[in-house]
Design a protein that fits this description.
InterPro entries: Calcineurin-like_PHP, Metallo-depent_PP-like, Metallophosphoesterase_sf. One of its GO terms (biological process) is lipid A biosynthetic process. GO terms for molecular function: metal ion binding; UDP-2,3-diacylglucosamine hydrolase activity. The chain is an alpha/beta fold. The chain has a single domain, classed as Metallo-dependent phosphatases (Purple Acid Phosphatase, chain A, domain 2), CATH 3.60.21. The protein is about 15% helix and about 25% strand. Strands 4-5-6-7-11-10 form a six-stranded mixed β-sheet. Strand 4 and strand 5 form a beta hairpin. The longest helix is centred in the N-terminal third of the chain and has 10 residues. The chain starts with 5 loop residues before the first strand and ends in a 30-residue tail after the last strand. The structure holds fe (ii) ion (FE2).
Length: about 200
């Protein structure tokens, strides 16, 4: 894909952080031009958030929790923000946006997609990238997901417009509970985002 930036939207572990160092090493090997960023998911926070964060950051992945980062790109800079999981933690956009300039446009990492209903109220956020749902893992053609998690009921998978903001929900590459997928393949999404930088 040769991406400019890599976004990872949380739930790196389900319940055990035993192999999270190996995971950090693998994910840290992904190459991008301007950096890799992550937010944590509810499972990370319910279990060992500190170990997950350390394992990722040791391998060059910046974990954003209620904060933002300016990313120097080829022609200017973009702003990437990340919030805490709403199911597992305490998202605080007021804190994360401190220091933003008036015309900054923000790419947001937020684990749970349904939080878009809140974030769409801030016009500076142009895109929210989420995970959490796995697309439902098991989908019925013509019907959709059989089971969806809390805070992942409204926006199951794919690209949505929520007010002036866009929301992308990736199906992720893993599974939770039953290790099965049906009509819902794992995915690494490639997004082309235009007209959002400060140039
Ligand atoms: Fe989750």
């Amino acid at each position: 894909m040769e991406p400019d930036v890599i976004f990872m939207t949380g739930d790196f572990i389900t319940s055990s952080s035993r192999r999270v160092e190996e995971l950090g090493e693998v994910l840290g090997g992904l190459k991008s031009k301007f950096g890799a960023f992550a937010c944590l998911g509810n499972h990370d926070i319910w279990n060992q958030p500190h170990r997950v964060r350390v394992a990722l950051e040791r391998h060059g992945i910046r974990v954003l929790t209620n904060e933002h980062s300016r990313v120097r790109c080829a022609d200017g800079e973009i702003v990437v923000a990340g919030l805490d999981s709403v199911w597992g933690g305490y998202p605080n956009w007021a804190k994360a946006r401190r220091g933003l300039k008036g015309d900054d446009r923000v790419l947001m990492l937020m684990h749970e997609p349904d939080y878009a209903e809140i974030l769409t109220k801030d016009a500076s956020i142009v895109l929210q990238c989420s995970g959490h749902t796995h697309g439902g893992q098991v989908r019925v053609p013509g019907w959709g997901a059989l089971i969806l998690p809390r805070y992942g009921k409204r926006y199951q998978a794919g690209l949505y417009r929520v007010g002036p903001m866009q929301l992308h929900v990736n199906r992720g590459i893993g599974t939770v509970d039953q290790h099965v997928r049906f009509w819902c393949p794992p995915e690494i999404a490639c997004l082309e985002v235009t007209n959002i930088g400060r140039f």
